[in-house]
From TrEMBL, chain A:
Keyword Transport found: no
Transmembrane segments: none
Record keyword tRNA processing present: no
Name of the molecule in the record: Putative thiamine transport system substrate-binding protein
Keyword field: Signal
Region forming the signal peptide: 1-20
Species: Salipiger abyssi
């Protein structure tokens, strides 16, 4: 019992928020302190277009006296591991990471372990250009961001199909199952816990569950079996109809695009409305590919950047996060030619010149309009994703 | 060697027994192991790791030996040697991607058959990621045969196989049979440790297993990596326990292999006692040559496929070639690869130089003072190759952090030395010891000092094995991913770290570009190792290899 109390006390002290120092509200002081700093931004480096965009952000930062180094990761977990290792070694200042491109699950874990610096994100000057009512910016996978991470783009789950092979794609999970019965072996999803594979599970759960509200609370507070029963019924039916009868799975989203190009599958999906357009532009997919979404909407969430608790160049990192929220950077990011991630800015808060930047963006035939995309569905609490991944692995991840 | 590995292992032991202060876990216990045992895929994952590792090692060794037995000293052998040796410089992941594109149901072989079979879409066959790990074994074999062949070639000249073979053949033994009975028993002890290194590597390899191996469940090492990368930080404890299990599994497999050696030796002795000549073993020669050529062709064709992909516009099934060729991928990536390429060289050259210096000093000291390293010392040396990287590198990273040297090039070089040194020792020690000391006696009789013998007789005569060892060392250094990432703190980008980060996006074109760049970086030293002795000794026939 004693040890439990000790552990609880320790956990409590660790979870105390770090006091924001420097004070981000004094932006002038932050900018001055950032002069000459080098910011090591740890961000996934698996995409050409993203890497090129980050390089452009680096050029903007250089104009403000900040050197930006993109540390290319193959998995965000590498950065989390590093901060953990630094904490273990007692390096509480002068850490090796200044900024992390982070998503809901990793954010929830780092926040819980007290590995993040802040609050700071609400104080950025460009934050005023976003809508404070926008729930997608104040909560990440339902976990309150509490100013510990700053948003920079929104993404949404979008399906794609080759209109030459499949003129009318199924527009719901149950329609997808019917279609798969007629076309066995022509649909695949990346194997969870790959981010996109887990997203597919969540999307199916949201579409099929009788109790959607339960998903916004931690999984422990719900009747898990009842909420997920329709999902597993659906998966039991779908798995033998998958590519390779569900005995092997593609590793990630890029592999899915490749399978589409190789004519091994007829429907793919990606967590980026512009994925199909980008793939066509890069010669990865034929130009007959089109996007579609499911009726009732698809999952969406925002990408964030966070600063580790022991970051060396906090001020520089804040300056970079602020550049990411500038209309110029946001418009560039939203351009399908460059990347095509959705903007987090509120158009009504921009001046005419800045709004014109966004209005000038042209979407190709493979990209859906905002109206066609519909409002993004909110992400479930991160504990659901964990539980679904475990459960999926136990049911289908071990070959018979 | 013991220091870094032991320190690293300590950093794994603590979390494996539930201690991770950074997560507020300070109560030691067996919880992580119970967690691990509760994972339903564990028996299968362990069987896969052990099975693929043992099978790949046995096949690679068998093929290497049969090629040597049937063809050593012939023109075909020299051709094979030239074809296979450079393949050592192809990074494992690149070779795996290339092979995957050859044998997949939508790959090149299927595309060649498609018009004949009338396929409009690829057949839904489980070739890659098959549950038995056959494609994983194939991917490992094609990569390990060149390595073992090179190690064999370095050890062979000292055994004077030509003379043994001539004797055996004059007694009526068949070519392969004679070689297997007279040369192989003396050869194997010299390549035993490289074989162990191959076994340990094959069992714990991650990148090849991710590309070619099954995923329901994957091999143990892949699963450990998944747990390490899971956002749920509590899984780190289970990952540490899994890493220790991986270590135990590797040790067990090595023990099993050791038993196998005794069995084979017994069989060989009884075969010799029968006196059967095996004169008609021509078929065996044919098969070994065919398989050797196939294995070389798989890597070469795979590389060719990657090269075509790096230039490809849209390329659908069942087209044999892309619709259009474009330099877009090279223009995009090429410029970005220059900085990591120089960084790669700046790390590989000092690391190999330091390791070479240490190995030569060690071997020379052995010679002059008549020392022989004990078996225990050798095991220590090979510890870094046998202990799975995932088991001790995280701990090593914490050590570097405490020492405050992480994130520097020096730390990365030091870490590379740990891995390059054993390989250098591996490829250099046998030729060094097997060198005919009568040369030294003659030189000393002519008035040369011990150093003079070393610099003017021994080193020049051993130029080829030294260069080969350097080439192997460079290839090893270029290929290091985890040590570079963990000790460089992401601040020391090399070709490999960039390639892995880009490959995580999985686009074949990008993989094509980065893989070719990596191959080129590792290929250069090999080309030099083959060319230089031929140039320098063009007027010394006896010093040229063969």
């Amino acid at each position: 019992m004693k040890s439990v109390i000790a552990a609880a006390t320790l956990a409590a002290t660790l979870a105390l928020p770090a006091w924001a120092d420097p004070d981000p509200a004094d932006w002038q002081a932050v900018r001055e302190a950032a002069q000459g700093q080098t910011v090591y931004w740890n961000a996934w480096g698996g995409s050409d277009s993203v890497n090129a965009f980050i390089a452009w952000i680096g050029a903007q930062a250089a104009d403000r006296g900040v050197t930006l180094e993109h540390v290319k990761l193959s998995d965000t977990a590498e950065a989390v591991s590093r901060v953990l290792a630094e904490k273990t070694a007692g390096r509480d200042t002068g850490g090796g990471i200044d900024l992390i491109w982070i998503n809901g699950e990793n954010f929830a874990a780092m926040k819980e372990e007290g590995l993040l610096f802040g609050p700071w994100a609400e104080a950025l000057p460009n934050r005023a250009l976003t809508d404070p009512e926008n729930a997608a910016l104040s909560a990440d996978f339902t976990v309150p961001t509490d100013g510990l991470e700053s948003p920079w783009g929104t993404a949404q789950l979008v399906f794609y199909h080759d209109s030459a092979r499949l003129p009318e794609p199924p527009r719901s999970m149950s329609a997808l199952l019917d279609w798969a019965e007629d076309n066995p072996g022509r649909f695949a999803f990346p194997q969870p816990p790959d981010f996109l594979g887990s997203t597919f599970l969540k999307q199916a759960l949201i579409e099929l569950t009788p109790d959607r509200d339960a998903l916004s609370l931690p999984v422990t507070q719900a009747d898990y079996a009842a909420v997920t029963a329709p999902l597993w019924e659906f998966m039991d039916a779908l798995t033998p109809l998958l590519w390779r009868q569900g005995r092997a799975y593609p590793q990630n989203s890029a592999r899915l695009i490749q399978l589409m190009a190789d004519n091994e599958i007829d429907i793919g999906f990606e967590f980026n409305p512009n994925a199909a357009a980008n793939a066509i532009a890069n010669g990865q997919l034929p130009d007959s590919v089109r996007s579609h979404v499911h009726e009732g909407g698809t999952l969406g969430n925002a990408s964030f950047v966070a600063i580790p608790y022991n970051a060396n160049a906090r001020e520089g990192a804040m300056v970079v996060a602020n550049i990411l929220l500038s209309p110029e950077a946001q418009a560039r990011m939203a351009d399908p030619e460059i990347w095509g991630l959705g903007t987090v800015l509120d158009m009504t808060r921009l001046d005419d010149a800045d709004r014109a930047r966004f209005e000038a963006i042209a979407a190709g035939p493979a990209t859906l309009s905002a109206a066609e995309l519909g409002a993004p569905l909110p992400e479930p609490h991160p504990s659901w994703m964990e539980r679904l991944e475990e459960d999926w692995a136990a049911r289908y991840g071990i070959a018979e | 060697m013991l220091g870094p590995v032991a320190a690293g292992l300590a950093g794994t032991l603590l979390p494996a027994f539930g201690v991770m202060p950074a997560l507020g876990r300070i109560e030691p216990g067996l919880m992580p192991f119970r967690d691990l045992m509760a994972w339903p895929g564990l028996p299968r994952a362990m069987a896969l790791s052990a099975g693929t590792g043992l099978a790949a090692t046995a096949l690679a060794l068998g093929l290497t030996v049969l090629i040597c037995a049937g063809w050593q000293g012939t023109r075909a052998f020299r051709w094979l040697e030239r074809a296979l040796s450079p393949l050592l410089s192809v990074p494992h992941a690149a070779a795996a991607f290339g092979l995957a594109f050859l044998i997949a149901p939508s790959g090149w072989i299927a595309r060649a058959i498609a018009p004949l079979a009338g396929w409009e879409r690829p057949p839904d066959l489980l070739i890659l990621q098959d549950p038995l790990g056959l494609s994983l074994i194939a991917g490992l074999v094609v990569k390990e045969v060149p390595f073992l062949l090179l190690m064999t070639l370095a050890a062979l000249p000292a055994l004077r196989p030509g003379q043994s073979l001539a004797t055996a053949r004059s007694l009526g033994y068949g070519r392969s049979t004679g070689w297997l009975l007279t040369v192989f028993p003396r050869l194997y002890p010299q390549i035993r440790l490289p074989v162990y290194a191959v076994l340990a590597f094959s069992m714990s390899v991650v990148d090849v297993a991710l590309i070619l191996g099954p995923s329901t469940p994957p091999t143990l090492s892949v699963q450990v990596l998944r747990w390490m990368n899971d956002p749920d930080l509590a899984l780190r404890l289970r990952a540490a326990a899994g890493a220790l299990l991986q270590l135990a599994l590797t040790v067990a497999a090595l023990g099993l292999w050791r038993l196998g050696e005794a069995v084979v030796a017994g069989l060989g002795r009884s075969r010799i006692a029968t006196g059967r000549r095996g004169a008609r073993d021509g078929a065996l020669r044919g098969v070994s040559l065919l398989l050797g050529a196939l294995s070389a062709a798989a890597v070469v064709l795979g590389l060719a496929a990657l090269a075509v992909w790096s230039l490809a516009g849209f390329w659908g099934f069942p087209a044999l070639l892309p619709d259009a060729l474009t330099l877009k991928s090279w223009m995009r990536q090429g410029g970005m690869l220059i900085a990591p390429a120089t960084e790669t060289l700046r790390i590989a050259l000092p690391a190999v130089a330091i390791a070479l210096l240490l190995v030569l000093a060690c071997l020379e000291a052995e010679q002059r003072h008549g020392l022989r390293p004990t078996q225990r010392a050798l095991w220590l040396l090979y510890l870094p190759l046998i202990v799975p990287q995932i088991a001790f590198l995280p701990g090593l990273q914490i050590l570097a952090l405490v020492g405050g040297i992480d994130g520097t090039r020096a730390a990365v070089i030091a870490a590379h030395v740990i891995f390059v040194l054993p390989y250098l020792f591996l490829s250099l020690s046998d030729p060094y010891r097997a060198w005919d000391t009568r040369h030294a006696a003659v030189a000393r009789a002519l008035g040369a000092s011990p150093s003079g013998v070393f610099w003017r007789v021994r080193l020049p005569m051993l130029l080829r094995p030294v260069l080969t060892a350097v080439a192997v060392g460079c290839a090893v250094s270029v290929g290091q991913f985890l040590p570079t990432l963990l000790l460089g703190g992401g601040r020391v980008p090399t070709l490999t770290t960039e390639a892995v980060a880009l490959a995580s996006g999985g686009a074949r074109r990008v993989i094509g570009v980065t893989a070719l760049a990596q191959t080129a970086a590792a290929f250069l030293p090999f080309a030099l190792a083959l060319l230089l002795p031929a140039l320098i000794w063009r007027n010394r026939r006896g010093l040229r290899h063969g």
